[in-house]
Amino acid sequence: MIGFAGLSHLGIVSSIATAAKGFEVVAYGEDATLAGSLSQGEAPFFEPDLAELLASHRARLRFTADASDLRECEVIYFSLDVSTDENGKSDLSALETLIERVTALASAGTTLVVLSQVPPGFSRGLQRRLERLEDGRSLQLFYQVETLIFGRAIERALSPERFIVGCYDPQKALPNAYAELLKAFACPILPMLYESAELAKISINMCLVSSVSVANTMAELCEKIGADWSEVVPALKLDKRIGPDAYLSPGLGIAGGNLERDLATVVSLANEFGTDDGVVDAWIANSRYRRDWALKVIHAELISQVENPLIAVWGLAYKQDTTSTKNSPSLALINALQPFSIRAYDPQVSLASDRVGPNFVQTDSALAACDGADALAVMTPWREFSGVDINGLRELMKGRVIVDPYGILPGRQAVEAGFSYFNLGSPALRSSLRSD
Is the pLDDT of residue 432 over 80? Predict the structure, then answer.
């Protein structure tokens, strides 16, 4: 029996994926209403294929609000999402409370696995606390690097590239129940010291940030000198030193929470131990600079020319296929445009009124948001936006400005319909047609 403590995004996805591999699973969270909804097959958030996987494997899943139900589990994961503040600093208080509660109930010989992302030193400190218990239960602790990516969570949970496992002693064999669980996913298993595993997660994200920063920096140059970043990317992916799977798509800074958290962790450690963090500071500065790309375009093309404009915004989530708005470039744009009227649409996200100003209205369709708008900003590349009829959009909108960072709409077609079209990494495309 495999247990999960923490019915967060991470815990729910991980527990369902484990059941899908044939294991009996007990998943605990203190919210009885949430546990009850999951038991009825109701997913609490949107994630591609989540509802279907939950429905298919409910027979092996038991969701509970009683922590004592975890006593029968040979392996217990701590799977609570760790929140971050506006500076990317982790708040570990809820995780610490959960670990204390569940550890007190764990049966002798239980394997405890921290799946939540924690800073370097956390696992070693927890191991020392377990040793001080001296109660003869022989609890074994491991830190497993999570692979959660919002919008691709099920895919990643079912087919991870590898398991990185932080251990007290990497030379010792993993406990049988834990080893059998990991082997069921048919991927490499990399045991290493606690601290090495904690830094491995951060190192992976730093490599991702470096790719994003290169893409953002060079895409801006493309916009200015007339090059097209989409033509440059294939040349990089054919270089063996970079590779076909390199993340080279320009974006609006570093959205979400995990990447900024890891950068903040490195800066904090550098300050503590006197190491150099200059490149990390530069990445953070580049991220915040590029986040405002859409705002700069709208200022130049609309606000400086039209009095009291109405701006349509498509997408509120920080990326497609998720309901998360953590560090969302769309919300940053909306907040910056608060003096003006904003009409927004997102297929999954509904914003509470206290998160936006009085000039914000959320509509029930993409086209409704554009009725009478002076400009459209496509801030989240949801697939449904790519099917919108450009000529129909032209009939609805008052203005002729489309800001489409991720290229979800057909740019050339938009120009032919009379729009000025702006896309990350490409020169502005302007129509020769006279605006209405």
Answer: no
* Long-range contact pairs involving 219-225 (C-beta distance under 8 Å, separation at least 24): 219/250, 219/424, 219/425, 220/250, 220/290, 220/293, 220/425, 222/425, 222/426, 222/427, 223/424, 223/425, 223/426, 223/427, 223/428
Q: What is the pTM of this model?
A: 0.82
Residue pLDDT, tens place only, 319-366: 999 999 988 999 999 999 988 999 999 999 999 877 787 889 999 999
- Residue type present at position 325: T
CATH of domain 292-422: 3.40.50.720
Cα–Cα distance, 44 to 38 (Å, whole number): 8
Give me the CATH topology for the region 2-198. Rossmann fold (3.40.50)
What pLDDT shows up at residue 433?
63
The two three-digit tokens of residue 191, written as one number: 């045991």
Residue 153 CB-density burial (10 A; 0-12 exposed, 13-18 middle, 19+ buried): buried
- Map tokens 């002798």 to a residue: 108
CA angle 308, 340, 436 (to 5 degrees): 45
Query: What is the CATH class of 202-290?
Result: mainly alpha
